[in-house]
Every structure is written in C-alpha cells, then in structure tokens.
From TrEMBL:
PROSITE patterns: CDP_ALCOHOL_P_TRANSF. Its EC number is 2.7.8.-. Residues 198-218 are annotated as: Disordered. The active site is at 91 (proton acceptor). This is Phosphatidylinositol phosphate synthase. The lineage of its organism: Bacteria, Bacillati, Actinomycetota, Actinomycetes, Geodermatophilales. It comes from the Bacteria. It comes from Geodermatophilus obscurus (strain ATCC 25078 / DSM 43160 / JCM 3152 / CCUG 61914 / KCC A-0152 / KCTC 9177 / NBRC 13315 / NRRL B-3577 / G-20). NCBIfam families: PIPSynth. One of its GO terms (cellular component) is plasma membrane. Mg(2+) 2 binds at residues 66, 87, 91. It is a multi-pass membrane protein. Homodimer.
C-alpha cells in the first residue's frame, strides 16, 4: 500500500506552501473547494473532449493542491467536522468526474467500449472501497487495509490517461486492468477485515424514534 508514503512525500514537498497559506489566512475548506472544482473542470473540459495528456496533467495539479487541506488544517491548529465531510465528498466528486469523463470520451469519439467498461468498473469499485471503510468505521471498526486506496487509484488512472494522450498504445488499458483487479482485491480485503472484527458483535441498539406527526407525511 503506497498511500502513506505518497502522502508523506507530497506533504514534505508542499510544506513551504502550506506555511505561506497559513500566514495568509487561507482556510483548508477554500483549498478543498479549489482543488475539487479544478479537478472536475480539468476532467470535464479536457479529458471528456479527448485532450487526454493535458487533462491528466491539469487534474494532477489540482489533486495535489487538494492534498494541502489536511496539512493546512494542522498548521492552523486542527480541522473541523464540516471540513472532513467536505474533503471526503470532494474526493468522491473528483473521482467520479475523472472516470465519468473517460466514459464520455470513449463511448463517443474515442470509440473504445473496453475502456468504457473498465472505467465504469473502476468507478463502482472505488466507491465501494470508500463506502465499506466509512461504514465500518461508523460502526467502530478499523478498516484501514487494501492494496489500492485513493492515492494509488489516481496515480494509475492519471498516468495511464496521460501516457495514452502522448501516443503510448494500451497505456490506459493496462492501468485500468490493474486498477480493476486491485480495487476488487481491496474490497474483498476490507470485507474480510470487517467480518473478522465484527464476529460475535451485535448491532448497537438505538432508542425507538418518535413517530412523525400525520401532517408531516403529506
């Protein structure tokens, strides 16, 4: 799993920028929004129109920018609950834009049904990877396992897209095949981890909710 090492390397690279942003009063939420919206714009405006290299390059720049928000939050004394939700939601939106842009291009002018299928599989498996972890942690379980997390997912799809844009044949095919298999393994690993930790544990009981007023059902 490369995620921790990759994030540490990115953190060291951006440390001087983080310090300047903190002194300037820039908020982590603002960085999250700029990174997310920039990645979406790069995917929709460039990848979806067949400009694969420049699309991958643009999305990469904004994804790296988006990784600043956590470091900036720590530099400002800690993040917020809203910021954490915003960051997680932005990550899902950017991922969907990248794979959706590939589906759009290769189902039209790009004319490659295999890439369409692989991109859809990667999108679904990526969402499942994130959902299983979030649901497990919401139940008090530890689910920080898997051979492919978001960092690896972005590296594979953006490198494959950029190389294909440079004219390297089958670069995206290979990247998406590796990502599909790796994501499927990650989902299985996380289910196995949850199953092992949840063995013998009952679902937490909750007090019955108050029935809504009949007028509220209209």
């Amino acid at each position: 799993m490369l995620g921790g090492n990759a994030r540490a390397a990115v953190g060291r690279f951006w440390a001087p920028v983080v310090a300047r942003l903190a002194r300037a009063g820039v908020t982590p939420d603002a960085v999250t929004l700029v990174g997310t919206l920039g990645a979406i714009a790069g995917a929709v405006g460039l990848i979806a129109t067949g400009q694969l290299f420049w699309g991958a390059f643009t999305v990469t720049v904004f994804v790296l920018l988006d990784m600043l928000d956590g470091a900036l939050a720590r530099a400002r004394g800690g993040g917020s609950v809203f910021g954490a939700v915003l960051d997680s939601t932005g990550d899902r939106a950017a991922d969907a834009a990248i794979f959706g842009a590939l589906v759009w291009w290769f189902s039209g002018a790009g004319d490659n049904r295999l890439i369409v299928l692989l991109a859809l599989l990667c999108l679904v498996l990526g969402l499942l990877t994130s959902y299983v972890k979030a649901r497990a942690e919401g139940m008090g379980l530890n689910c920080d396992v898997g051979v492919v997390e978001r960092t690896e997912r972005l590296i594979l799809v953006l490198v494959g897209t950029g190389f294909l844009g440079l004219g390297i044949p089958y670069a995206l095919h290979v990247a998406l095949w590796v990502l599909t298999v790796g994501s499927a393994v990650t989902v299985a690993q996380r289910f196995a981890t949850v199953h092992r930790q949840a063995r013998g544990r009952a679902l937490p009981t909750r007090p019955p909710s108050t029935p809504p007023s009949p007028g509220l059902l209209l």
